[in-house]
C-alpha cells in the first residue's frame, strides 16, 4: 500500500552534479521506496519556470561555467517558487555550489553573482587555496561527515544560523568554525561525498521533514551497511 | 665526470638507497635529479636519435603506451619508456636516467605516458615529436580540479607544441584542440552497432561546446561522452577520423577484434584485451604509430602481440582459480569495466577494493557517479575491502545488490580468502582503485600462489 508520496524536485540535475550529487537523490529514492513511500522526482532545468509544488528541492554543485548559467536562471525563473516553498517549510537543500546559490551572492573570477537569498550568507574568494578534504560537522547530537572541495569562502550574516560546527576540516571559510547555514528547512552545506549516503540518518531526517512527520515515525530499515559507511567516513576524517 | 654526470650519479644513489629501505623507487631518482637540475629531462632526452612521443588521457594511458611499445618493437625501434606507471616528471626523468645505465641496445625513441596535469611541464622539456591526447573524463576532482581546468592547460600545451598532434575525434573537448593545429591525426570508432542504446552516461562530461557553449547533439554515444556529435549552435562537429575501427566484435572479457583502417589501408586486428575502451586504446596506439610512419603490418602485429598490462585486465591464477584484475579509477572507467564484465554471461563474483589515498583521489564520491545499476542484477557475491570498503558496499546496495550478497572485510588478504571461498570455481573479478591494485598484487605475490598473464617485456 503506497500511503504517501514525496515530491522531489532536482534543480539542474544534468549541470549541477559534479560531486556525484546523484547519490543524494538515489538515497532519497531508495529509502522512500523501501518504506512504500512513492518518490516522484521532477527535474527542473535552464529555462523552466519553477512552480512550488514539491516537498523537497535539491540543488548540487557544478563546474564554474555551469554554475554561472544556473545562477542567472535560478534568480529569473525559480526564486519566487523557492521563496514560497521556504515560507511553507518545504525542504530546500543546496550542496556546495548549490549552497552558494541559495545565499545572497557569490564571487566567481571577477564576477559578482546574485543568488536567491534564502540564506543570509555571501560567498567571496580570497587568495588562499581551495578548501579540500574530509570534513566532520556537529549537527545537534549527531555528526555529519563527508568531503569538501571549494574555493569560495562563505560568511554568515549576523543572526544567520550555521548548519553546524566544524569538528574536522574547513567548513564555510576555514576560520569561523562554522559549516553550512540553516534557516528552518532551508539548508546549505559544503559537505558532499555525497552527503546523504554517508549520513543516512540525515536522509531520513529530510524525508520526515518533507513529509511533515517525525523521523521516528518512519519505518525502521536495516542500516547495517549505512552505519558502517558512516563510521568509515568518520575514521577517514580522523575521528 | 661532468657536473651533470655528477648530479645524475647522486640521483641514482638516492634511488638505490631508497630501494634498500624497501620503498618503491620508480620516480625518486628522477625527482632528486630534477631538484638538482630542472633541465634534466631536456638534457637526458636530447640525445635520443628519434626524439620522444608522449601520451596523455584520463583513461587508458598505460595500456595505450604498452600497445604503442609493442608496435614499436615490431618495427624494430628501441624505446625507453615509463610503463611502470610513474608518469609525472620525476618518473620520466627516472626512466631516462635508468636507460643510460642499462646494458641493452641504446634507446632510439622515448615513449612516455604523462599525467594529465604534468603534460605542460613534461612536453615543455621533451619537445615531443608526437603528442597523443586521447580523452578527458571527470577524475579525481580533489587533485585535478574541474575538467575545464585540464582542458585549458591542454589547450596551452597544444598552442606551444611543435610536434604532430594525435587526437581522439570522438571526445569533443579533445577534438576541439585540433582546430588550429597543423595536420592533426584523429582517431575514432566507426561502428554504429557499438553505440549505447541509452545515450549519454549519467556522469557524462563535456556536454557543451567548448567554442560557443551550445549543447552537443549526439548521433551516437560509444563511451561516456565519446561518440559522434555536433554542436547545435555553432555546428562544430566530430572530425572525420583518419585512423578508425570498423566491424568491432567484443569477445567476452579477454579479447576484441576490429578492422583497422588508416590512410595506408586496412587490416584485421585481434586484441588480447577486452572491451570497447581497449579498442580506443588500440586506435590511439595505431594513430601514434601512423604519425611515426610505421607500416600497417607492424601496427597490426604489434597490437596483436600485446598482453594486458598489470592490473588492467590482467589475469592472475590464485591457488588454481582465476582472478581478473580490472583497475577502476573514475566513473567513466568503472562504467566500461562493468560493461565489459557483463560480456561474460551469467552471475559474477566480485572483489571490490576502494582506497582513498592521494593516487586514488581522497574523495570517494565518484563511485556514486558510476553506473552500477544495470550490473547489480548479475552480482552473485561481492566482497568489499580497502580503506573505504564499507562505502563501496553501500554503493552496491543502493545500486540494487541484495545486502545478503555483500560482505565487508577490512583486511585485504582475508577479503581475498572470503571471495575465493564463495566463488567456488568461478572467475573472480577484482575491481581495485590504483593503490588498491598495487596492494592487491603485492598480497598475491607474497602469498606465492600466483602466476600472472602480465610479463614485462
Q: How is this structure best described in words?
A:
The complex is a heterodimer of chains A (239) and B (457). Chain A has 239 residues and is an alpha/beta fold. Chain A has six helices and 14 strands. Chain A has a single domain, classed as Class I glutamine amidotransferase (GATase) domain (Rossmann fold). Chain A has a six-stranded mixed sheet, sandwiched between helices. In chain A, strands 6-5-7-10 form a four-stranded mixed sheet. Chain A is globular. Chain B has two domains: 267 residues, UDP-N-acetylmuramoyl-L-alanine:D-glutamate ligase; 141 residues, Mur ligase, C-terminal domain (Protein-Tyrosine Phosphatase, Chain A, Alpha-Beta Complex), CATH 3.90.190.20. Chain B is built from 16 helices and 18 strands. About 1% of the residues of chain B have low confidence. The chains are: A alpha/beta (239), B alpha/beta (457). The interface between A and B is medium-sized, with 35 and 35 residues.
Amino acid at each position: 500500500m503506497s500511503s504517501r508520496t514525496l515530491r522531489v524536485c532536482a534543480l539542474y540535475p544534468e549541470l549541477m552534479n559534479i560531486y556525484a550529487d546523484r547519490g543524494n537523490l538515489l538515497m532519497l529514492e531508495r529509502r522512500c521506496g523501501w518504506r512504500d513511500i512513492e518518490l516522484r522526482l521532477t527535474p527542473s532545468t535552464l529555462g523552466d519556470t519553477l512552480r512550488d509544488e514539491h516537498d523537497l528541492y535539491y540543488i548540487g554543485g557544478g563546474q564554474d561555467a555551469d554554475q554561472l548559467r544556473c545562477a542567472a536562471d535560478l534568480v529569473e525563473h525559480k526564486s519566487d517558487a523557492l521563496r514560497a516553498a521556504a515560507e511553507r517549510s518545504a525542504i530546500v537543500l543546496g550542496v556546495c555550489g548549490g549552497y552558494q546559490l541559495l545565499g545572497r551572492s557569490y564571487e566567481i573570477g571577477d564576477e559578482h553573482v546574485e543568488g536567491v537569498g534564502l540564506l543570509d550568507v555571501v560567498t567571496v574568494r580570497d587568495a588562499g587555496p581551495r578548501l579540500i578534504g574530509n570534513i566532520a560537522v556537529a549537527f545537534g547530537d549527531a555528526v555529519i561527515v563527508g568531503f569538501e572541495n571549494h574555493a569560495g569562502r562563505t560568511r554568515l550574516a549576523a543572526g544567520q544560523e550555521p548548519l553546524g560546527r566544524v569538528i574536522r576540516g574547513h567548513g564555510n571559510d576555514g576560520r569561523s568554525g562554522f559549516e553550512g547555514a540553516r534557516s528552518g528547512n532551508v539548508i546549505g552545506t559544503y559537505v558532499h561525498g555525497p552527503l546523504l549516503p554517508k549520513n543516512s540518518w540525515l536522509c531520513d531526517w529530510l524525508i520526515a521533514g518533507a513529509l511533515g512527520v517525525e523521523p521516528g515515525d518512519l519505518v525502521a530499515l536495516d542500516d547495517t551497511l549505512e552505519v558502517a559507511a558512516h563510521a568509515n567516513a568518520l575514521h577517514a576524517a580522523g575521528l | 665526470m661532468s657536473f651533470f654526470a655528477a648530479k645524475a650519479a647522486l640521483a641514482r644513489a638516492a634511488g638505490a638507497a631508497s630501494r634498500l629501505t624497501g620503498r618503491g623507487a620508480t620516480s625518486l631518482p628522477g625527482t632528486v635529479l630534477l631538484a638538482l637540475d630542472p633541465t634534466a629531462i631536456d638534457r637526458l632526452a636530447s640525445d635520443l636519435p628519434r626524439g620522444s612521443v608522449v601520451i596523455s588521457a584520463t583513461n587508458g594511458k598505460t595500456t595505450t603506451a604498452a600497445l604503442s611499445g609493442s608496435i614499436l618493437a615490431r618495427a624494430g625501434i628501441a624505446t625507453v619508456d615509463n610503463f611502470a606507471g610513474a608518469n609525472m616528471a620525476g618518473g620520466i626523468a627516472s626512466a631516462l636516467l635508468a636507460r643510460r645505465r642499462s646494458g641493452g641496445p641504446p634507446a632510439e625513441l622515448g615513449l612516455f605516458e604523462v599525467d594529465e596535469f604534468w603534460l605542460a611541464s613534461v612536453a615543455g622539456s621533451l619537445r615531443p615529436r608526437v603528442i597523443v591526447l586521447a580523452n578527458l573524463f571527470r577524475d579525481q576532482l580533489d587533485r585535478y580540479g574541474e575538467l575545464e581546468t585540464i582542458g585549458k592547460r591542454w589547450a596551452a600545451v597544444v598552442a606551444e607544441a611543435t610536434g604532430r598532434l594525435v587526437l581522439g575525434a570522438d571526445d569533443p573537448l579533445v577534438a576541439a584542440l585540433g582546430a588550429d593545429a597543423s595536420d592533426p591525426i584523429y582517431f575514432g570508432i566507426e561502428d554504429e552497432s557499438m553505440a549505447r542504446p541509452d545515450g549519454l552516461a549519467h556522469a557524462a562530461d563535456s556536454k557543451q561546446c567548448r567554442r560557443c557553449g551550445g549543447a552537443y547533439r549526439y548521433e551516437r554515444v560509444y563511451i561516456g561522452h565519446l561518440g559522434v556529435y555536433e554542436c547545435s549552435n555553432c555546428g562544430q562537429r566530430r572530425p572525420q577520423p583518419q585512423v578508425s575501427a570498423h566491424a568491432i566484435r567484443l569477445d567476452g572479457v579477454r579479447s576484441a577484434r576490429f578492422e583497422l583502417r588508416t590512410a595506408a589501408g586496412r587490416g584485421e586486428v585481434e586484441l588480447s584485451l577486452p572491451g570497447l575502451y581497449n579498442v580506443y586504446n588500440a586506435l590511439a596506439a595505431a594513430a601514434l604509430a601512423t604519425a611515426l610512419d610505421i607500416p600497417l603490418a607492424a601496427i597490426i602485429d604489434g597490437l596483436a602481440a600485446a598482453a594486458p598490462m598489470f592490473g588492467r585486465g590482467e589475469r592472475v591464477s590464485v591457488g588454481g582459480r582465476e582472478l581478473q584484475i580490472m583497475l577502476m579509477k573514475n566513473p567513466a572507467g568503472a562504467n566500461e569495466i562493468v560493461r565489459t564484465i557483463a560480456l561474460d554471461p551469467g552471475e559474477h563474483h566480485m572483489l571490490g577494493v576502494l582506497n582513498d589515498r592521494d593516487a586514488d583521489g581522497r574523495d570517494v564520491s565518484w563511485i556514486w557517479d558510476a553506473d552500477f545499476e544495470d550490473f547489480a542484477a548479475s552480482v552473485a557475491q561481492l566482497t568489499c575491502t580497502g580503506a573505504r570498503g564499507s562505502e563501496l558496499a553501500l554503493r552496491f546496495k543502493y545500486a540494487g545488490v541484495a545486502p545478503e550478497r555483500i560482505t565487508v572485510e577490512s583486511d585485504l588478504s582475508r577479503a581475498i580468502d572470503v571471495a575465493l571461498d564463495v566463488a567456488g570455481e568461478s572467475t573472480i573479478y577484482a575491481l581495485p582503485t590504483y593503490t588498491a591494485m598495487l596492494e592487491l598484487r603485492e598480497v598475491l605475490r607474497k602469498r606465492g600462489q600466483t602466476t600472472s598473464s602480465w610479463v614485462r617485456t
